[in-house]
Amino acid sequence: MEYTFLLFAFIFGLTVKVIGIPPMVGYLAAGFVLNAMGYNLTDDLQHIADLGITIMLFTIGLKLNVKDLSKREVWAGSITHMLLWTLVVSGALFGIGALMGSITGALDIKSAALIAFALSFSSTVCVIKILEESGESKTRHGRLAIGVLVMQDVFAVIFMVAATGKLPSPWALALLLVIPALPMLYRILNRSGHGELLPLTGFILALGAYNLFDLVDIKGDLGALIMGILLARHPKATELSKSLMAFKDLFLIGFFLTIGLKALPDTNMLILAVVVALLLPFKAFLFYGLLASLRLRARTSYLTSLVLSNYSEFGLIVGSLAVSLGMLSDQWLVVLAMAVSISFVVTSLLYKNSHSRYVRIKDDLTRFERGNRLKEDIYPRIDQAEFLVIGMGRVGMGAYQSLSKLVDSRVVGMDADRQKVRKLCDGGMHVICGDGEDIDLWDNLDISNARLILLALPSIGDAINITRQLKFAGYNGKIAAIARYEDEINTLLENDVDKVFNFFTEAGLGFAEESLAYVHANQDVIVPVK
Question: Which of 227-231, 432-436, 516-520 has the lowest mean pLDDT?
Fold first, then answer.
């Protein structure tokens, strides 16, 4: 990646972050500014962008539970949304073409349907980036959104086969040999340790799967996703995903730059892109209506529909294919690129305050809820708990175990990751599944006996949001949280957290105290040296 590209990405990313906008918006803006200055998309930058998407799909697979895809709300919601969206939007685009023919050019119903289909996809890159930055990829709505994205990837592969008439190679059946090879791959992961060899192992596995699938004429990105899914049950899957996170984020900067560098619009194209972007509310409403009809709670339907209300980079692939087949004019590529960019900005900004906005509009949204709940959406009971630990990672586990030694059964843990909760419960711990930022959860959870709630979360944004939800729900007990950096402590205290512990300082203090207690407990066996 050229230094100029990196410099502009840094300047624009930092600028928008300072004013409270996600850096992703700045990277998109940097791409368009570089384009206007005469810079062109290079092969090296495109390779970096492609690598970022491949690693991202691999890490999605590492955190994906295949059972999530079999849920009715995932497959039925995805298929129905795509069919209804394509039907309605193709008619709308055909009408727009009739009214704005001088701008859109010739647009028959077949071309309109193709564009509508391309716009039915949501951006994997944008959605995953938002969910990870907000720490919500393991929540109910996060897992649902990822499930929909995976289903859309499957639709994408089917479309590419149908559009090009190019069937996978007969050798594609040999890919099934990866399954009996899993024990060997597991051993490789075990041997890779915890240092620089671990992310390198991840690169080799992700890119190896990509090239294997590409070799037999199947979308290579799908191979990276499936490889991640196959390795998701390995004990080191979470560690492997975290080790790749920094690389993935850096490479994805290249992807956002490529969006702006692909083409520069004129006034007519910009107008048309804005018109296409105005269809985004319909996309969100359609998702919400379908998910609510499938018996999901209002909050889950709202957050899922909001994070999925964007257009996908796959629309550019469909557009390129349609142009090469003579089905669309060249200008639609530019329009689609602009519409995708606008949708990224809209979703990033709207999702930023989604939780506080839900508190204001929840009464209107809950009117569309179905009375009978899905099994996953039934709230648990913890009416006897005096201490609640939210976030059962390493810090949360340590806090839970220490408190349990002191107050026994009056301690309850909570985590949004259902698989983790099930595993901890099997181990004899009292842990419930819940999203701390869910105001509906606190409205339905009896925490009247809770004296202390510990927020063992890495993101201070999540800690602040949960604190606000607790106050809205009328909680009057104490709230403690952790901070990784000194400048985060005052921010948390200013937002009604009663006590903040510096993660690294307290870890050293705990280590010293535990070691000292061990020495005192074993003094009777210490033999002085003469």
Answer: 516-520
C-alpha dihedral over 193, 199, 200, 204, to 10 degrees?
Answer: 110
State whether 148 and 283 are in the same domain: yes
Characterize the bridge pairing of strands 499-502 and 411-415. unpaired
- CB atoms closer than 10 angstroms to residue 223: 27
CATH code, 478? 3.40.50.720
Could you tell me the pTM of the whole model?
A: 0.76
Could you report the per-residue pLDDT of 364-407, keeping only the tens digit for each? 888 888 878 787 778 888 777 888 999 888 888 888 888 887 77
Instruction: Write the DSSP symbol of residue 375.
Output: G
247: domain CATH number is 1.20.1530.20
- Terminal alpha carbon distance of the chain: 65
How many angstroms separate the most distant Cα atoms in the chain?
100
* pLDDT of 480 higher than 80: yes
Q: Which residues are paired to 413 by β-bridges?
A: 389, 431
Q: How far apart are CA 251 and CA 139, in angstroms?
A: 25
Q: Are residues 386 and 327 in the same domain?
A: no
Model confidence at 206: pLDDT above 90: yes
* Residue 389 backbone dihedrals phi, psi, to 5 degrees: -105, 115
Buried b (16+ CB within 10 A) or exposed e, 253-279: bbbbbbbbbbbebeebbeebbebbbeb
Q: Tell me: do 349 and 406 sit in the same domain.
A: no
| Residue 527 in domain | no
pLDDT band at 510 (very low <50, low <70, confident <90, very high): low
CB atoms within 10 A of CB 69: 17
Domain with 264, as residue range(s), is 3-368
- Interhelix angle 267-277/331-352, rounded to 10 degrees, is 50
* Same domain? 346 vs 480: no
Q: What is the mean pLDDT of the chain?
A: 83
Handedness of CA 159, 164, 167, 172 (dihedral sign): negative
**Separation CA 273–CA 35 (nearest Å):** 17
Q: Do residue 263 and residue 405 come from a single domain?
A: no
- Place 211 in a pLDDT band, splitting at 50, 70 and 90: very high
- Do 436 and 315 lie in a common domain? no
